[in-house]
Design goal:
It is a single chain. The chain has 424 residues and is α+β, with helices and mostly antiparallel strands. It has 12 helices and 12 strands. Strands 6, 7, 8, 9, 10 and 11 form a 6-stranded antiparallel sheet that branches. Strands 1-2-4-3 form a 4-stranded antiparallel sheet. Helix 11 packs across helix 12. The longest helix is centred in the last third of the chain and has 35 residues. It is elongated, with a radius of gyration of 34 Å.
């Protein structure tokens, strides 16, 4: 067997394979024997008819196709194994006429990308060595306790004018140059005045209004407003107060702490709040460092990404976006029109950079796990799978996909544990 191998961009490989007549003949013989064994001729048991009669009854084109398929499979499997490749898509096969009655073909395959990792040990030691010590201030504790108290405040409807700190029910409409803003006519909401949930100035125009009273005012959206199509535009508002509610906050004492169900007194509650805030900060710092390490490793590595990886990741992101809009009660087509001009293609273009970043990180983690022999065992993966199922996080997920997901979780955990624990 003669082969020519040509490596192409994006992890593609083109292979030209030539099998001599002698190398192809066993595949032809096997295909002929299989076809003849299935021939049914009246008066003979299957496979017992004379060879000449059976040969006339078979479809030699089908036999040739069978022989070619087997020859391609066997030869290509051998080449792939010899080179240590892992295929990630079906090969594209093109037959080439062979005057010598052997078999010549070209195969285009996509293999798992070649990865030349940067000095990940040096990178990890440097970045994890920059870990910041986390601390919790008294002001942060007070803020959390205030939130707890507000979440359990008693609310009573009042007939007076609205003040900052009151809960108000409001219906409103928005217009630009006399035309209604999309999805902003007769909207209703209920919120605490003064918390700044809306566009700057909106809540100020409601203070002093009683239930049933209206307000007309105009505001200019900030240049960094979350809705891009409204940024720096003058918006006219028509609002009406549907209700004013006074909040009575509970006193932060031992009785309040015990009422939460798990605390003996305020001191115990404060300790729990401090511990919780500290744990959140430490988790956030660990996540920041891990992201920084991974980004640096990817930046310092050479990764020849296959396009199919990128395309599949974009497919997944697009499907997740569709599901999110649907779960949020929105209209996907309207969302697509609003952000991408109604074009799926433009949305995919916008997702490409994120997809490349994600795939690069995944491939780097996989390559690092292989280099350091950090692959999860079947027992570890199965245990993680069962844990996810027990937590109720596997509804409508195929068991095989869940197993692969669990494998990835454990592998990433092993890689980061390894990097975090590197010492000089």
């Amino acid at each position: 067997m003669k082969t020519k191998i040509n490596k192409l961009p994006k992890s593609a490989v083109e292979i030209e394979v030539k099998l001599s007549r002698e190398e192809f003949q066993p595949h032809w013989d096997d295909a002929i024997a299989l076809a003849m064994s299935g021939v049914k001729i009246k008066g003979f048991r299957p496979g017992a008819a004379p060879a000449e009669m059976a040969r006339q009854a078979i479809d030699e084109n089908a036999v040739f196709e069978k022989a070619v398929n087997e020859a391609v499979k066997d030869s290509l499997d051998g080449i792939v194994k010899e080179n240590g490749w892992s295929l990630i898509d079906r090969p594209e096969i093109d037959l080439i006429p062979d005057a010598g009655q052997g078999l010549t073909y070209k195969a285009k395959i996509i293999v798992f990308p070649e990865v030349v990792l940067g000095d990940y040990k040096k990178i990890a030691k440097r970045i994890f060595g920059e870990k910041k010590n986390s601390d919790v201030s008294e002001e942060e504790i007070k803020k959390s306790l205030k939130w707890l108290a507000e979440s359990r405040a008693k609310i009573a409807r009042v007939s007076r004018a609205a003040r900052s700190g009151d809960v108000v029910g409001v219906s409103f409409s928005c217009y630009i140059s006399g035309q209604p803003v999309e999805n902003s006519v007769n909207r209703s909401d209920r919120f605490v005045l003064g918390e700044g949930r809306f566009m700057p100035g909106f809540e100020d125009n409601l203070i002093g209004k009683k239930e049933g009273e209206g307000a007309k005012f105009s505001l200019t959206a900030p240049e960094d407003y979350w809705e891009e199509n409204l940024r720096e535009k003058k918006i006219d508002f028509e609002a009406k107060i549907g209700g004013v509610f006074e909040r009575e906050l509970p006193e932060l004492n031992d009785e309040f702490a015990r009422g939460l169900g798990h605390f003996s007194d305020v001191a115990n509650l404060k300790k729990s709040v401090r511990d919780g805030l500290l744990a959140e900060k430490e988790a956030a710092e660990a996540e920041r460092l891990r992201a920084a390490v991974l980004n640096e490793i990817v930046r310092e590595s050479q990764i020849n990404l296959p396009q199919i990886f990128i395309n599949k990741t974009i497919d997944q992101m697009a499907e997740e976006a569709r599901a999110f809009v649907k779960q949020s009660g929105g209209d996907y087509e309207e969302n697509l029109k609003k952000h991408y001009g109604g074009s799926e293609e433009k949305m995919r273009e916008a997702l490409t950079e994120r997809a490349i970043s994600k795939v690069s990180a995944d491939v780097a983690m996989y390559a690092l796990a292989k280099a350091e022999k950090l692959e999860p065992s079947p027992e570890e993966t199965e245990k993680e799978t069962e844990s996810i199922i027990a937590r109720g996080g596997a509804q409508n997920i195929d068991r095989r996909k869940l197993y692969d997901y669990s494998y990835g979780i454990i592998q990433n955990r092993k890689v980061f544990d390894f990097l975090e624990n590197l010492t000089d």
